[in-house]
Amino acid sequence: MYNLGKFLPTTPEELEGLKIKSLDIILVTGDAYVDHPSFGVALLGRYLESHGYKVGIIAQPENPQDIARLGKPNLFFGITSGNVDSMVANYTASRKKRKSDDYTPGGINNKRPDRAVIQYVNWIKQVFKDVKVVIGGIEASLRRFAHYDWWSDKVRKSILIDSKADILVYGMGERAILEIAKRLEKGKDLDDIRGTMVWKSSVPQNIENAIFLPTFEEVSVDKKLYGEAYKKTVFFTDPYKDYILIQKQDNRYVFQYPPALPLTQEELDELYLLPYTREVHPFYLSKGEVKAIETVRFSITAVRGCFGNCSFCAITNHQSTHVVSRSVDSIIEEAKILTRLPDFRGTIVDVGGPTANMYGLSCQVRNSKGQCEKGCLHPRVCKLSISGEQSDSADTFISLLKSVKSVPGVKHVFIGSGLRHDLILASSKADYIIDELVEFTSGQLKLAPEHAHPKVLKFMHKPSAELFLDFKKRFEDAARRKGQKKYVIGYFIVAHPGEGPEENKYLREFIKRNLGYIPQQVQIFTPTPGTLSTTMYYTGFDPFTGESVYVEKSEKNRNLYKENIINLRK
Fold it and tell me: How far is it, in rounded angstroms, from Cα 378 to Cα 88?
């Protein structure tokens, strides 16, 4: 028997050994149980535990009996598909079933059901008729309103309605999930909690600050109204704009209350220093290795949130544009924890977050009035985006990396997170930052220009290809001056809205002319729920400008666009 109490319990034997008669909260996930803060269930489980609740985790249940193995919780079940939307996890960009899954023991994709959140809720309701069920995570968060579902090629209702859950937590869920626990503990209702959605059979007459979205029935048949609904959702969903968003679906209404306020720096510090084992629970490890842990085991999350607003990215919509950075002392303390792990060999593979070099940056306008209508980085870098609260200098992130590297036992510190090269180039200390980045790069610095054609980049909300080439040259020149062979490697997306045969040819020629290598990281655009790119894919226009967008929907052509890039030599 493994060390009882080291992990949150996942088996009846653990409950018996810990002398726990019943749990307060049981979290269910489509991923294996990995006790690491990069896994949402582990993070929320430890957070609730730190507030005095008895928490258990059931990972990748296989049937109603399996999902009930820890009994009925005193307060609620919390459901998530895991770190990835289950349909994205289960299918490729060509709608073919994936054979592998990094989040499943043994790496075989055979444990996560399609539309996992709905399936798990149905299983729970079969076994426990009167238990409260809370849904959350990326799958629930980005499917919370009527949304286009690429896999079925239709507009689906809110996942809250389809799953028949009691309440939905959207975005980063610490504040909301704790408030839900407190209310249920006191026998109170779950209405009007920030960061949540509920459904009602009618709209109160005295409701204030309400924004009514086009109905499910309307957005299902009218693409202009679908675009309008998306635009309103993005603009009015902000923790510093106190609006309730309401959408009618059949004879019911889904209510989205204002987002939860971002955690403070102190709260974020405490969250990431909770007693995670940073290991796969032995119950699941006995079934095979979980590959996903290997890329994050010796990593540190330094920042949460991203104001990049890339059209195809779910992170902005989930973590919000409001950036919160941990303190240097907290990050140093986590680095010391890593050095004490038995398998640590001196290398911290990543210090970052959604966008690593947003560490320490803040915007007083965004933090008081909410996100502007204009983007922070697109079409150009706003001067307020390069100001920081933690330091007056533009090299706050570099200073952090140096501090982490100075921890006894740490030999190397690398950046594995995304970087915004346009943000670096906009800094008055760009040359210094680029020069220092060479020291924190392991052979290749991976950037995501995503495309080269100006029109496609405009729809992606990405900077120009010329900026990428400028950064690439300056970085590689800096490495050469230091006598090091280090290079910038680009990630690219094909078949994104705006790309047709001519734009694909343009990208191909750009790569041949400027990169000198065949990129291995080329993805076919997948229209995932809740993003601007998916809205453009479905409607054929940009909802913010009204501009028509060419959309490639032929599977043959989508695959051909990728082949044109990865087969450059042929």
Answer: 27
Dihedral sign from CA coordinates of 319, 462, 446, 424:
negative
Angle formed at CA 40 by CA 5 and CA 325, multiple of 5 degrees: 110
Q: Where are the alpha helices (DSSP H) in 342-462?
A: 366-369, 396-405, 421-425, 430-437, 454-460
pTM of the model as a whole: 0.95
Q: What stretch of H or E contains 270?
A: helix 265-272
The closest alpha carbon to 270, from 40, 8, 26, 46, belongs to 46
For residues 185 and 500, is the Cβ–Cβ distance under 8 A?
Answer: no
Is residue 495 exposed (0-12), middle (13-18) or buried (19+ Cβ within 10 Å)?
buried
Characterize 124-145 residue by residue with b for buried, 16 or more Cβ atoms within 10 angstroms of its Cβ, and e for exposed. bbeebeebbbbbbbbbbbbbbb
* Closest alpha carbon to 83 in 34, 49, 25, 120: 34
Query: Does the pLDDT value for residue 385 go beyond 80?
Result: no
Phi and psi at residue 199, to the nearest 5°:
-115, 150
Q: What is the pLDDT of residues 96-147, one digit of tens each?
A: 999 999 999 999 999 999 999 999 999 999 999 899 999 999 999 999 999 9
pLDDT tier, 2 (very low <50, low <70, confident <90, very high otherwise): low
